[in-house]
Specification:
225 residues; four-stranded antiparallel beta sheet; 5 helices; 36% helix
Length: 225
């Protein structure tokens, strides 16, 4: 039985009649403009004088309304794009993070997607849909910048030297609401730190216990996870 519901076809037919070719052009133009706002914002973000992100998409023209980027590997940050994804989710945004590898069905091993990029390298992408308004894009830019600042403050300044070792370490990580007040962020805190933040060594097994003000952490062998 190959019969399928026709509702999707009817909806698309209605949209074509309702918007027309010019209407779809305007929608696409608006999506590309919003993608450019996000892309330009990421390009302006720096860390110690270097670009924080490396852009992976095809730019503002001749490209889909998709923004793809990764944290600059030259910065040697103690967190990656997957960890950034988790912190951004505190503000109720879901930004898809990936590693550049796949599970081969033939060898049953993790295989790099590209010959010029290590499979453990992470990236993220944002699909700018037609219901993503300019105001929402500007809000997302601020969320990403705050998330990077939070990770810098609590994972670089507090623990970067120790997190690169395999020994047991321990340090205090304040609530994000407290940290926002301490750095003078205006207004009320929009979010609170997740029960289990996933810093870079999430892939290396570094976890935080729940519901405590003082957190003890330990870094384990990355191959264990």
């Amino acid at each position: 039985n190959f019969s399928r519901p026709a509702s999707g076809i009817m909806v698309q037919f209605y949209k074509i009649l309702r918007l027309g070719l010019d209407g779809y052009r305007r929608k696409t133009r608006n999506q590309m403009a919003n993608a450019k706002i996000l892309r330009d914002s990421l390009k302006k973000m720096t860390y110690r004088g270097k670009p924080r992100f490396v852009m992976l998409d095809n730019g503002d023209t001749g490209c889909l309304p998709v923004v793809a980027a990764m944290l600059n590997p030259e910065l040697n940050l103690p967190y990656d794009d997957i960890d950034l994804q988790h912190v951004i989710s505190d503000d109720h945004w879901y930004v898809s993070g990936y590693r550049m590898q796949y599970h081969s069905p033939e060898t049953e091993e993790l295989t790099p997607l590209f010959v010029d990029m290590h499979g453990e390298q992470s990236m993220f992408r944002v699909v700018v849909k037609s219901n993503l308004t300019t105001e929402m894009i500007i809000s997302l830019c601020g969320v990403i910048e705050r998330a990077c600042g939070w990770l810098d403050e609590h994972l670089i300044q507090g623990a970067a030297p120790d997190m690169r070792s395999n020994g047991a370490i321990g340090f205090d990580i304040p609530d994000r609401e407290d940290s926002r007040r301490s750095v003078g962020m205006p207004g009320r805190a929009l979010t609170r730190r997740r029960d289990s933040i996933v810093p870079r060594q999430v892939s290396a097994g570094l976890m935080f216990p729940r519901n405590k003000k003082s957190y003890s952490t330990r870094a384990v062998n990355p191959t264990a996870c």
